[in-house]
Please model this.
Amino acid sequence: MRAPRAWLARLGEIFDKPRRDRELAAELESHLQMHIDDHVRAGMSAEEARRQALIRLGGMEQTKEACRERRGLPWLESLSQDARFGLRMLRKSPGFTAVAVLTLALGIGANTAIFSVVSKVLIDPMPYPQANRIVMLRRVFPQGLSLSYPTVSIPKFMVWREQTQVFQSTAIFDSGPLALNVTGGNRPEQVPGIRASAGYFKVFGVPIVLGRAYTAEEDKPGGPHVAVISYGLWHERYGGDPRIIGKTIEVGGSADEVIGVAKFVARFPTDIWLPLQANPNSSDQAHDYLAVARLGPGVTLAQARIAMKLAAEQFRRKYSGPFMMPGESATAQPFRDSVTGNVRPALLILLGAVGFVLLLACANVANLLLARATVRKREIAIRSALGAGRKRVIRQLLTESVMLSVAGGVLGLILGFAGIRMLLAQYPNNGGGGFDIPLIGSHGSEVTLDWRILLFAIGVCLITAILFGLLPAIQASQTPLSQSLNEGGSRGGTHRSRARSVLVVSEVAFAVILLAGAALLIRTLSALRALRPGFDAHNVLMMRMTFSGRQYDKTGGLAAAIQEAERRVGAVPGVQAVAMGCCVPLEGGSDLPFSIEGRAPTMGPYNGDDQWRFISPEFFDVLHAPLLSGRPFTDADVLGSEPVVIINEAMAKTYWPKGDAIGQRMLIGHGLGPEFEEPPRTIVGIVGNMREKFSGMTSSEIDPVMYVPAEQLGDPFMQWVREMLSATWFVRTETAPFAFSMPIQNALREATGGLPVADVRSMDQVVAGSTAWSGFIGMLLSSFAAIAICLAAIGIYGLMAYAVEQRKQEIGIRMALGAQPRDVRGMILKEGGALTLAGIFVGVAAALGLTRFMATLLYGVKPWDPMAFGGVVILLGAVAVFAAYVPARRAMRVDPMVALRHE
Amino acid sequence: MIKLSNVEKSYPSGAGNAWVLRRINADIREGEFATIMGPSGAGKSTLMGIIGMLDGGWRGEYFLDEHAVHRLDNRRRVELHKQYVGFVFQQYHLIDNLTVAENLDLPLAYRDVRRAERQALVADILDRFQMACKKDLYPNQLSGGQQQLVAVARAVIGKPKLILADEPTGSLHSSQGKMIMDALKTMNEHGTTIVQVTHNEAWAAYGHRIIQLADGWIVDAQGKASAAC
Amino acid sequence: MGGDKTDVWQGTLALMVLKTLETIGPMHGYGIARRIEQISGDRLAVNYGTLYPALMKLEQEGFIQSEWGVSDNNRKAKFYKLTRAGRKQVEREAREWENTTAILARFLSPEEQP
Model:
């Protein structure tokens, strides 16, 4: 067909209308003249000739009209006419338009924002080449993956990596970023870094933008001091200097040569990669590393799992003794699962929640359009009576619906953009409690607007709008014209108002579901906030420090630094006490296995594996943690004196339920490796429970903890500790702690020979941060619930207001029959109330089914918490009554005379 | 029973007022059957609304028996209305989604009549109008005349002293109209005061006298404005 | 009006116009119509009211071009002429038409085909 060309030609003709009209008139006139000439020549009178010619031409104007139809694009002209009319209709009812557009925008915007984040984390390919080929190598216990840590030890990795028939490459690296001191130059700072084996760069396909990665040769024990730095660090600290390669930087007190710059989104923020240089013959049993591998070509996950199982058995045969727990095996897990496991349920719940918001938005728009449909029924009937074809009427309504959806979509796009930014601004980025959203880059820099979901959401809204926007046209074409013209509007539309009732009921139900979710999280949050952390967080400042440098190779150096810090920081005006500890309460730390002297081993060779902390003597004083019995640590508890340990109440209750813990002896970390060997420690005190972590917010259990004096650790133990764990200083001040931040930092720097501090926070912030994740999810769900309740209220209001408008006459009759205004108000309220109750009933039933999926996010409340549900019902009921009250008031004011003035 | 003096009603329109009723003086005695006639827009319905105490915003004096309606507030008027008035409308104005029996029950319910008594009264009136077999039907299952009969029954069920019928036969065939008019006549013979609006001379003849309205004025038979008293 | 003359069928009018222009060269609307009627031995009556929209359509599709000129009788008239695309279109349509009529002829021929 020549259609495109013809269209183009016709399009051009639109803009040239007057000339074309003249030309056509001239052409037809000349045709007429020639015809007349012929007739005259054949002997007709001029008058008769003209008449005959006109008859044959079929009338001048009709022919012109036929040509005009053919010319230009009549459909385009009528489309623009439709659009103009549609725009006017929308402008004429600004309330309807505003509510519909805003509703659509909220639905589209919320979905776009949430889905953009979720797709980055759960759906989009991870930012590694062939990322689906990367697996995590990990231990597994009969209870399943979720209950075990993913960490591995070096000897296990050394056996596993022999599975070369399934793995193309393997790597092992630190299980969390180390705080590395970068000194030299005029600005010492702590940056996150990890030690990783050379395979790391192969497994993740790390793009090296400058220089090279380190080789397997350089990764051997005793290898050279080399480092790969991040693109960010290269730019921020070294100004993007291209001559950085080959330069030496001071990392953790040793001089490392920079050999490469990597531009890479790592599992956790990383600025420096150092070769792990692990000893293949190590017997170190500390499970402080993560292992990953890239599957070989054609290898399936199932094959890798079998290979790992075999490798675990191989390891068991190779190392007889306490190296594997009973039931322990090994497996391979898709890397994404290992990364997103923590946040997955929450993100899915958010996704579900915004899905409901979208449904609600659609229901609301449908509702609005149906309400409008009845109003417009007459208009449509009149149009049809005036000769508008069914197609034309449908097109008119279609144009309006599309205009609404497009306006909603544009506003939704804006809201979506703003929503993503708002979302990430609210997102707790402090890593407290280990709930980072992975894969979104620092501060969500990797998150971009997801066009797929935007189009999807707009599509859903468009379909809704078209469907419900067209209903009146379809119905109008089914009812006889005379009937719809004669109807005053008091009859008819009963089944349509039933449809609207169903919509309102489902809106209320959706709102109940969202509100129930939000209420449960709010209850969780308040339960979490009501938890006593076990220490006095008020007026305590904390800051992290990593003890790098030769002077801290021996424990004595650390002891001297602690005493010096106590002296110098203690001298800062306003400071009450200062202490050091390895880990920040509420944020977790490391655990070590132990055995109790005189007891048979119960767990492998041990009696337990629990949280382990090293602290300075003042630690409990600074945090106001009460000593329940025994004695505190003193300055006399140093290397060489009797080895001592203080345990918390939970540990005492777990292992010495008879209350005879004091004086007992325990052997900690024995058999893990040479650096862990130390004599048994005597329990000298029991301290009140401090919460170590909120255990993923699902468990109210308090972890058992053992505390040992930092100054009493053996030198090799000390060296392991300071590599693996950065230390934290805690300072109690008389007033708001941040006022003293600078003098304290200066005093600490002087006391430790110039070591930098990082992560300066008040303990109040730490406490707040520990609930930040549930706060974040709770905040999001609450805003969705707020949107939901608004939409539901609009729905109820719209339906009742419409009902009042429709039934004005009936209300008038009732009043003429003696109804009091309050009878009328009661009638409307009762109808609104019945719909609301139905919606609440359905919603509560559905919510009871759905909140089960939230169980992992909840703390201290059951998914069927009666308080939360009761609150939701009351709140929604109140809102619904209010929404129905306004139209009910209007109904009261209906003039009974409308019953008389019917015509 | 009804005494109107100088009753006026107007709507503000443009610069001045649009008069609906002007200086209406009328006296309707108890037991009378009065007919209001006049062309469309003469103010007939408005006058009915005022007599029925549905309409506010008029001036003048209106005594209903000893009650000075013009001095009563809206609530008292509604009370009085319930006590005195039953309405019959041209368009029947039955409520579509209520059955015949429920429609009849409505005025009683609004008068706080006890349930048992209401049932008795409804049964009674259904019987009297010979509609007992139709009590569970919906209005749209009835003919126009039957619907209007229900409307009349509804108007009288509360035993009003005054029935206001606004073109009760306007939408009916003449045979059905006669049925309605006969019903009204019977009611009147039993002592109920009736004011009707009609265009039909024959139906007007059922009444004792005719009040002619034109352009808001009461006019005499010759169509001249009657002198103010 | 047409008496017992057959009105030109919608679909074939375009082909007739094109064929006429191919045969006699540039011509105005009235001339084209007369020519078609003559060729048919006056058995066809061209509805002039549909002729002009058809010409317009052909022009939009690029099969014909128009320009103003002067007729034999010294009247100003719009002349249409075939474009190159129009020539191809005549060939194509004529072929199709032959096919169609051939098929129809087989259906209508009295003897059953074996």
